[in-house]
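thought: fold this chain, then report.
action: predict
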Amino acid sequence: MHIDLNCDLGEGSGNDEAIMPYITSANIACGFHAGDEHTMRETLRLAKRFGVNAGAHPSWNDRENFGRKEMNVSPAEAEKIVLEQIQILATIAKEEGLTLTHVKPHGALYNQSAKDVELASAIARAVKAHSVDLILVGLAGSRSIEAGREMGVRVAAEGFPDRGYNADGSLMSRLLPGALIESPEEVARHAVELVKTGKMDTLCLHGDHPNAAENAKMLRDVLEKNEMEVRRF
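observation:
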């Protein structure tokens, strides 16, 4: 059994270099919720140094709320927003000698597209418009995965070891108790449970988690001890 281990990076948390040795894919903020050209370039260089996949982490254009406020825009506008961010990061990646491997939406854009088929389809169109080789990362069992498959886009079903889930498989609101799993030991236990009980291609750790680097190291160790090979897409 093998699994990819990804993390949301380039968001200004200051621990990207400490996390990078333990992950296999980096989701890099494209400037709409966090980051700028400098942080994108620096994160891409770290990914290259550690042999980690580099992917775009597009968001609603909402720096004030870190991309975590729901927005209501047309599918055409959503497609444009996502494609623009992919292209921004892809241009810098090319200058650094890298090719993007995947796209993983951020925050409210991610959660809304997990339930809204029109939004999910718009994101999948943006991914496909940039490159048929890109992998769309989405919540396991969600509309995002369904829309990608229907459009002929490569997809990766994702689980969240450091987040709590609702009974329907959606992520708990960050405002609710238990939404953020803080203990590295509990994060690692949850990761093994997710892989064993669901069809997961990748697991995500949040770079802005207070124990992000410790979580990444412990999770990598625990997965490998449970005979789960951690490797890139």
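thought: worth noting. The two ends are 13 Å apart (CA to CA).
final: tokens above.
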